[in-house]
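On clarity, I found the account of how folds are encoded harder to follow than it need be. Since the whole study asks how a given chain folds, the encoding of that fold should be made plain. For the editor and my fellow referees, an illustration may be useful. An entry of this sort, consisting of the sequence and the corresponding backbone structure tokens, reads as follows:

:::
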Amino acid sequence: MSRPLDWATLNARSPLLAAVPEPARRLARQMELAKGARLFTCGDRPEAMYFVLSGEVHLVRHGRNGAWIVLQRARDGCLAEASLDHAAYHCDAVATAPSRVLALPMEPFRAALADAVFQARWMAHLARELRRVRTQAERMSLKSAEDRILHYIALEGQDGTVRLARSRKDWAAELGLTHEALYRALARMARAGRIRMNGLVISLAA
């Protein structure tokens, strides 16, 4: 289901959206996704570039242990940027909460990259996303659940403390773990005095 677009509000919330040229704006649409809905599935042909306006959408693959591996977690940002030059998606996009998504059709989006301002802001966005992906790849290369937890707290937290903005089950998916494996690892680390937990706030022990 689509809704009218309020470009004045969109311009204020994102420098990238503020630079979208008028021809692409005229063809953009807004979509509503229920929790658990798939925006696209592996093998689908990319038809639009998506920007998550509210809620949360994950790019996921299924790992060998049965857990979802979260490749990207989009909240108030672009989703699946690599689809720009791909013939098909290599993962699923799943709404993990009721979400609102802006869809910019792919061909007008590609044409918009000829605009100098939009191109510069797109490149700046990709540079930030590359840094995020490198951090995620480094984390996923770690073998133990404990090491992945410590890596996350060190790089995503502040002063040794991370405040999760979602459930621990969702966090497990981002770490490439089953939620059972995450809970067991947290319990072991807490018993050993390596971390302190208070709800969704997790801190490294002094």
Q: What stands out?
A: The chain has two domains: 2-139, 145-204. The CA atoms of residues 57 and 95 lie 4 Å apart. The chain has a mean pLDDT of 89. The chain has eight helices and twelve strands.
